[in-house]
């Protein structure tokens, strides 16, 4: 029996050796490649770890290509790029891809970068992580009331969690109220602002609104809506006397744009941002002039859709 097994494994081994040898007796491995890279700033260095490869074709994901084995590429803009290397040899072909995050700035995190043709869409995070709150609009945004999970649903404004806000790398912007395809829903916003601007469709306020001026009102964004991101700004809200927020990141809007909560003051503070989450400070009861000079702050987390 041992002799039978020995003959069988010997035959298998010889067959493998014969299949792996070329006509001239030299062993050839199947053509294969693995992709390795390093990124510093906007410069990326790539390495093709290959077997039996005679040619290399790189696609860097920004329209640029190379046939070098181990190319170095400088991206014109930061962003997210899909890189592909394809190899060809006597024993076949192989291909590998990698996802690169190149020089990812807050603006890239916000918009998805130059390769995100559909922009990057955000909505209010209904789980309201720790730190989401109604606050005083003072220097440190002193908490008045923490936001609990789904709090706006509990007080009759659950549709706020359906609103979507899309930022494009070129500065364009869309705000779709209640997830509507043409931004013709009702915006979650300030009751005082809705009354002053004469918007119709204002939802009846409840006890919470008596304090925080919440409402929903008819809303439609302009076709040319846009946003501006400031990396470092000293920002004063007109309806808050004596307070300037120094060195903050801000988002401001034109074309009837807003994010999260529509009020007279549409410029907001960007407190923090990652690829999946951002936290904004939005000012409420920030009137255009006729209301007492006072305001609250709504600190909310948004999640990437």
TrEMBL record:
SMART domains: PKD
Stored PROSITE patterns: PKD, PROKAR_LIPOPROTEIN
Annotated TM spans: none
Domain PKD intervals: 55-105
Any one Pfam family match given in the protein's UniProt record, by short name: PKD_4
Cited InterPro entries: Ig-like_fold, PKD/Chitinase_dom, PKD_dom, PKD_dom_sf
Keywords: Signal
Residues of the signal peptide: 1-22
Protein name: PKD domain-containing protein
């Amino acid at each position: 029996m041992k002799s039978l097994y020995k003959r069988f494994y010997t035959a298998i081994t010889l067959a493998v050796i014969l299949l792996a040898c070329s006509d001239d007796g030299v062993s050839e491995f199947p053509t294969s490649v693995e992709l390795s890279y390093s990124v510093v700033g906007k410069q990326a260095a790539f390495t093709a770890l290959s077997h039996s490869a005679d040619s290399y074709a790189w696609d860097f994901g920004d329209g640029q290509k190379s046939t070098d084995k181990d190319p170095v590429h400088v991206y014109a803009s930061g962003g997210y790029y899909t890189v592909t290397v394809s190899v060809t040899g006597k024993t076949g072909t192989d291909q590998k891809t990698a996802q690169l995050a190149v020089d990812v700035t807050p603006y890239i995190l916000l918009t998805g970068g130059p390769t995100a043709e559909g922009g990057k869409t955000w909505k209010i995070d209904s789980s309201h992580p720790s730190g989401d709150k109604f606050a005083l609009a003072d220097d440190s945004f002193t908490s008045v009331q923490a936001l609990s999970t789904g709090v706006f649903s509990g007080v009759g404004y659950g549709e706020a969690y359906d609103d979507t806000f899309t930022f494009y790398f070129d500065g364009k912007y869309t705000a779709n109220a209640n997830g509507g395809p043409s931004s013709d829903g009702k915006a979650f916003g300030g009751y005082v602002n809705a009354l002053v601007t004469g918007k119709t469709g204002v939802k009846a306020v409840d006890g919470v609104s008596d304090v925080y001026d919440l409402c929903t009102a008819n809303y439609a964004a302009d076709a040319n809506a846009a946003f501006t991101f400031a990396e470092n700004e000293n920002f004063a809200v007109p309806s808050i006397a004596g307070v300037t927020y120094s060195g903050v990141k801000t988002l401001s809007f034109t074309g009837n744009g807003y994010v999260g909560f529509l009020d007279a003051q549409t410029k907001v503070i960007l407190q923090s941002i990652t690829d999946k989450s951002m936290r904004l400070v939005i000012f409420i009861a920030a009137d255009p002039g006729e209301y007492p000079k006072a305001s609250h702050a709504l600190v909310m987390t948004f999640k990437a859709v």
